[in-house]
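Task: fold both queries, return tokens.
Query 1:
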Amino acid sequence: MALIFSTIRSTALRLIALTAAVAMLVSSCDSVIYDEEGDCEIHYRLRFRFEKNLLFTDAFSAHVHSVAVYAFRPDGTFAWMRTDRGAHLAANGYTMSLDGVPAGDYHLVAWCGMDNGWQGLDHPETFTLPELIPDVSTEQELQCRMEREYKSLAKKETPGTRSDDDVVAYSNSDLWPLFHGMVEDVTIIDPNSLEADGQTITYNCDLVKNTNRVRVILQQLSGEDIDVRDFTFRLEMDNGLMDFDNSLVGDETIVYEPHNMDVGFAGLDPDAFMAGPEGTQVSPSDYVPVQVAIADFAVARLVEDRRSTLTIYNSEGGLVARIPLIDYALLVKDNYSYLDYIGHHMTNQDYLDREDTYTLTFFLDRQHKWGGARILINSWRVVIRDYNVGS
């Protein structure tokens, strides 16, 4: 009887010991179970999304080829950064690892679209960021600056607006696409703490595109050809410096000049502009291809209520047109009001952030001047009342 009891007791003790060993294996981050399935440390990743466009779809993989992410503590001090670039960013489901960020609370700032040398193109960088020092630098130092050059503009180059030999900042570059994003309330825990349970936490970073293309087209209402060399185009803005939160910082005025000037061909639509200047009439026979003047600009972020003056002069120095570009760009926003019905209401700034291409077609009279009443903006016909062309 004693022998039977001893055997049962020994077997029970072995079962208890085996159960304890299994429990230790299951709970240990070094267990063979987790070695087969992956470690049980917690991991963090950052997913980028570029849905701020008029298609309301994620276009990150097609448009963004480099990323730089900065982590700041709640008091604004810089803690960590990581960059990545290359064709692999276009892979489905690309995310950036945040492993290595010290435990703590942060907000992240992303600047994307710089560091383009890997593409092998002979095109200098058009935006720059400062180098930050961990535990020393602050978020206020993370300002993105558009590169610009300086020159003295003779009076004949900008007639009626500047004195001789004024030195101005200017850009005639075809800017690399630039994107910005922020992520608030990011918490990183110690990967070896009891809270780490093998999960992967992914934060989403939504991007805003900060670069825009502006195409200006000049067409004679009479149907006559136009020579682009007979005109001077200038676009003046103060948008060359962006803060860590993507707001515009006080900066000098940038004189944008076309990075491309060319000729094109278009037809004059008599249904759109039947009444020409000075009482002339456009007949259906005038709907024939005519040569037009084209000027292409690349500009930084457009922000509502900021200065944005487009000025066009003819070869004699006469004013052809002067308009506030941003105000005119917003004239066609209401044409997208149908988006309200599917839950995509847009404020003025939301529209400026989603649209990145603006085409303005001016119809000129025989004196090469714009009457100020009719214009096409992104193919939308706009009739303007009580507007002074030289305002």
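Query 1 returned. Query 2:
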Amino acid sequence: MSDTGPSAPAASGTSPDAPAEPGAELRPVRPGDAPAIARLARRAFGPTEAVFVRSRGEGFVVEAPDGLAAAVLLRVIPLSRGRKAGFVSWVMTDPDHRGRGLASALTARGVARLDEMGCERILTEIEGHNTGSQGVFRGLGFHPVGLRTQIAAFGLAGTVSVHLRTNVIFDPGHDLWLLDAAPEPAAEGPQRLACWGLNAAFALMALGLGGGLLLSGAPSWPSVMQAAFMILAVAVTLGLREAVMRGVARAHGMPVRFRGWVGGWGITAAIALLFGSLFPLPGSVYPAAPDWRYRAALPVLGRAALAGTAAVAALVALALWTVAALPDTLAGAFAASLLVIGTPLLVFDAVMAFPPFHAFNARRIHDLHRGLWAGMAALALLLVLW
């Protein structure tokens, strides 16, 4: 939802009303700004993500002599009993104007405006590797929060409403960040189990719906053995991926932690229901330090992503051989379960390096070395088409 560049400064100490650079004006969004905001979004995010930007509601822009240099877009989410939550939906900075405090000034002004509008809680969402935006929002007092904190802040119905009314439902790898929330301790075990359980549940749904409601419309619930194999396959595939990535990071001296993904479950549910396939939400490993920087960590993160994806590719190749060589056996049935999660995971981890799928490993590999990404993508497509 935001693009402040890899070295965006924190927002602490920034005056919300101060122009961000000489000759620039920080002002509210006007009705006629929509085309300029669309152009800014294409420059800030690229075409694949810019199509999701909508300049409805309130916001602020920094207008420089050469056009819009940055923008923040705001939304209000109604809750029960007349309560309101404020959502910082988009923060974008033109590449030619990054590093000048624009995102900090705009975000601070946007948060102040949501507070003026009576929003009891203010939140945003940030992709797990977008350390530039994380620095800006952390400087204002935001912290990532899990489901338990979300329910405490908004109530159960309010949390569902927040997920449905924000982009997080369709954004894999994004976290919700809440203003004035206490930093949450890492809870890798529960997050890992929740991640495996969520993927297993949607895999079983996809398996039970066959080709999905759009293609077959003939549900056939899996047997106990099929369900057990699917749960085990999810644990083996995601566990292997994480273990290899963690091992590479450790070998390079980088402490990491696993974090399951809050965002993207809407895509997973829709694909399972309509097409009977699995859109995986594998989570990822991130540096354990709270103030890490993406570009500095990329050499290690990229190698870890490459190794984890290669491990999944090897698992898929082994499963394909087993299905062909050992049909009508327990080994063949388990291998078929591995393919249900391993094949789509390999596609996203090896091929889909661009928004809105940039939380997967493919983006880390692409940023590390485009030639390696192209080779891994070709291998993945070869295995998928086998």
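Both queries returned. Flag for query 2: The CA atoms of residues 347 and 380 lie 6 Å apart.
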